[in-house]
Amino acid sequence: HVQLVESGGGSVQAGGSLRLSCTASGFDFSDSDVAWYRQGAGNECSLVARFTSGGRTWYRNTVEGRFTISRDNAKNTLYLQMNSLKPEDTAVYYCVAADAIILLSPTCRSKYYWGQGTQVTVS
């Protein structure tokens, strides 16, 4: 039974920081691509950052330089350090896992394994 449990969301003022965590179970975490997607006011899910099983990272251009994705395979945990937050970063952030994550804007909570989401609000 695959489980992805996010934590660390909340409300912060513009310019502030938050660190999201995602604890995974029920699958081979180290052999999986993992990623953070977000669903903003427009309801579309978009890829924020991805960490492949091979060790490569990818960031959408609007967060590159501000966000850092990392993973600890020994702890089956994925992280997203978010600095210099902006109001447009406000969204529900989802932890996602799959054999290969390639979609930039999938239908939310489809195709891959998704966590329940954590709200990030920047004012």
Characterise the protein shown here.
Helices cover 0% and strands 49% of the residues. The chain has strands at 3-7, 10-12, 18-25, 33-39, 45-51, 57-59, 67-72, 77-82, 91-98, 113-114, 118-122. Strands 2, 4, 5, 6, 9, 10 and 11 form a 7-stranded mixed sheet that branches. The radius of gyration is 13 Å and the shape is globular.
Question: What's a quick, concise take on this entry?
Answer:
With 123 residues, the protein is mostly beta strands. It has strands at residues 3-7, 10-12, 18-25, 33-39, 45-51, 57-59, 67-72, 77-82, 91-98, 113-114, 118-122.
What class, by secondary structure content? mainly beta
The H-and-E topology, N to C, reads as EEEEEEEEEEE
Q: Tell me the number of strands.
A: 11
What is the straight-line distance between the termini? 37 Å
Number of helices: 0
Low-confidence stretches: none
- What percent of residues adopt helix (DSSP H or I)? under 10%
Specify the overall morphology.
Answer: globular
Average pLDDT for all residues: 96
| Beta-strand content estimate | over 45%
Structural Rg: 13 Å
Q: Biggest sheet, in brief?
A: 7 strands, mixed
How are the secondary structure elements laid out?
Layout lengths: L2 E5 L2 E3 L5 E8 L7 E7 L5 E7 L5 E3 L7 E6 L4 E6 L8 E8 L14 E2 L3 E5 L1
Parallel strand pairs: 2-11
Antiparallel strand pairs: 1-3, 3-8, 4-5, 4-9, 5-6, 7-8, 9-10, 9-11
Characteristic key phrases:
single chain, 123 residues, mainly beta, 7-stranded mixed sheet, 4-stranded antiparallel sheet, globular
